[in-house]
């Protein structure tokens, strides 16, 4: 029975018709693991007392080795034996736990990227607002300056003049 893969904390038990232990894998030390011992979970005892049962699945946290497991007990046809297989939650949910951890890590990374992106966007908006305020200030200086100001392009063509230029030279801004 050691060939049955029930995980690291699982167990395979063979019991006779009176629920006496025939063999157990992995072996259990002490009276609960002794061949012929009748230490069984209350759920298995109740199932065995039910007339005509052939199979029963149950959960028990009160086990001889203190490992909570989901058990399936099967009466073996034509032989007075019961096969009881128990799988621990940590074993049968291990893949699920790994998947949950991966999803949580992915969501955490997505939230981190969202936070960094939001911070960068807010920073860019603040810099844009500051640049706009500076441009507005320079435009006011240009408009209200008492000195004549002429803006030219790279070919020295006049792009703009301020009102002081028009007053001092008599040329219109057009």
Q: Let me know the average pLDDT.
A: 92
Radius of gyration: 42 Å
Q: What structural class do helix, strand and pairing data support?
A: alpha+beta
Read across the widest sheet, the strand sequence of neighbours is 2-1-5-4-3
* Morphology call: rod-shaped
Helix content: 40-55%
Q: Please indicate the percent range of residues in DSSP E strands (runs of 2 or more).
A: 15-25%
Summarize the biggest pleated sheet: 5 strands, antiparallel
Number of strands: 7
Ranges with pLDDT <50 over ≥5 residues? none
**C-alpha termini separation:** 101 Å
Question: Helical region count?
Answer: 4
H-E order: EEHEEEHHEEH
Summarize the structure.
This protein has 174 residues and is of the alpha+beta class.
Could you characterize the architecture of this molecule?
With 174 residues, the chain is an alpha+beta fold. The protein has 4 helices and 7 strands, in the order ββαβββααββα. It has helices at residues 42-49, 89-92, 94-144, 163-169, and strands spanning 11-16, 21-25, 55-60, 69-76, 81-88, 150-152, 158-161. It has a 5-stranded antiparallel β-sheet with strand order 2-1-5-4-3. The mean pLDDT is 92.
Explain the layout of strands and helices:
Elements: E1 11-16, E2 21-25, H1 42-49, E3 55-60, E4 69-76, E5 81-88, H2 89-92, H3 94-144, E6 150-152, E7 158-161, H4 163-169
Give a quick set of tags describing it.
174 residues; alpha+beta; five-stranded antiparallel beta sheet; two-stranded antiparallel sheet; 4 helices; rod-shaped
């Amino acid at each position: 029975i050691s060939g049955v893969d029930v995980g690291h904390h699982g167990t395979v038990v063979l019991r006779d018709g009176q629920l006496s232990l025939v063999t157990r894998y992995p072996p259990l030390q002490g009276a609960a693991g002794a061949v012929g011992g009748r230490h069984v979970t209350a759920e298995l005892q109740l199932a065995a007392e039910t007339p005509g049962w052939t199979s029963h699945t149950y959960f028990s946290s009160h086990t001889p080795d203190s490992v909570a497991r989901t058990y399936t007990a099967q009466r073996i046809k034509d032989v007075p034996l019961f096969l009881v297989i128990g799988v621990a939650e940590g074993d049968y949910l291990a893949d699920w736990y790994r998947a949950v951890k991966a999803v949580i890590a992915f969501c955490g990374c997505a939230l981190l990227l969202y936070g960094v992106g939001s911070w960068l966007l807010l920073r860019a908006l603040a810099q844009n607002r500051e640049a706009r305020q500076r441009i507005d200030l320079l435009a006011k200086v240009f408009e209200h300056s008492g000195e004549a100001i002429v803006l030219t392009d790279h070919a020295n063509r006049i792009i703009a003049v301020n009102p002081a230029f028009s007053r001092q030279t008599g040329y219109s801004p057009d």
